[in-house]
Amino acid sequence: MKIEVNQLSKHYQVQRNKKEPLWKLLSRRGYETKRVVDNISFNVEEGEIVGYLGPNGAGKSTTIKMLTGILVPSEGEILVNGIVPHKNRKEHSKQIGVVFGQRSQLWWELPVADSFNLLKHMYKVSDIQFKKKLDLFHDVLDIGSFINTPVRNLSLGQKMRADFAASLLHDPQILFLDEPTIGLDVVAKERIREFIQTINRENKVTVILTTHDVGDIEALCHRTIIIDKGKIIYNGDLDNMKSQFGKYRTLIVDIKTEKPVYVENATIVKVEGSKVWIQFNRNVTNPTQIISSLIKTYEVEDFTVEEPQIENIIKHIYDGKHSTLSNNERVDLDYGIN
Ligand SMILES: Nc1ncnc2c1ncn2[C@@H]1O[C@H](COP(=O)(O)OP(=O)(O)OP(=O)(O)O)[C@@H](O)[C@H]1O
Ligand SMILES: [Mg+2]
């Protein structure tokens, strides 16, 4: 059950920048092609959980929609277990489950039980399998406590659990999750994460998920693919991401001084009382050098080095600094991708 994505793109015709004169906007030239997904390639192997990450508007949901067959690619190919999603949607829907955290796929007015029955019918799920699945969902998602409630009356967490159950009734081998924990409280998030881990471990379900939640990434993702402005800027495991992107470290120094602090080859990023946060590039300098330079001028009382947190690394990747570089430079300087 392999997912192969080859030079995939999605273009939209969008209106040109509104600052242009109205006569231009009214003419055909007022439109331009926006490359929302721009020539991306990646594979996902059976049983993997891959985090598909990127800032708002990067093209994540658009990619997921193409993978599920909802959207037709402008260029390139997708093969999911040999099936081209948009060309064979019926066959494809049997092998995949989909959860969009932003909106429920269940029938709004109907009790959860009715939605499940409809899906059983649509997917031709056997009575035995239906019962088996309902038992499982009852155990691990506690679906029983709201099975007769109309979907519109469910809490966000209950709705998400119902959506997960619905997407797995037909026992798909692949699960696409677009922000599956959005808006949930800490406990509900934890529950969903555990559920994803369980179905991945026990049923070997392959999972691709988009998320803005670092907790999801740390708990779930064997591998991350990061996309920015439609292009893949990283594809690899978390440890590797730390070492590739985490070239910036922070040194927290306790300094007794009235004067502003200056450090060579490093940047002061925060000052709080006598504590100074100094960010440095570990390819350029190191804590020993910084401290020995500081003690020449200031009275240094204490210092610690902060290990790069995944959250900080992702912030750094998302903050867009790299976008001023050309693609080739990006690869050489920062990421060494693929
Ligand atoms: N039908 C459309 N027509 C024109 N532009 C579109 C269309 N659908 C999406 N876009 C644009 O494509 C870009 C990518 O959207 P997409 O929803 O894939 O982003 P995303 O990575 O999922 O972001 P988020 O993290 O906010 O969910 C956005 O700039 C969006 O405005
Ligand atoms: Mg999205």
From TrEMBL:
Which of UniProt's keywords are assigned here? ATP-binding, Nucleotide-binding, Transport
Per the UniProt record, one Pfam family is ABC_tran
The UniProt record lists the keyword Coiled coil: no
Q: Where are the transmembrane segments?
A: none
The record's annotation in InterPro entries points to: AAA+_ATPase, ABC_transporter-like_ATP-bd, ABC_transporter-like_CS, ABC_transporter_ATP-binding, P-loop_NTPase
Q: Which domain of life is it from?
A: Bacteria
**GO molecular function ontology, one term from the record:** ATP binding
Boundaries of every ABC transporter domain copy: 17-254
What name does UniProt use for this protein? ATP-binding cassette domain-containing protein
Native species of this protein? Answer: Paenibacillus illinoisensis
The root-end lineage is: Bacteria, Bacillati, Bacillota, Bacilli, Bacillales
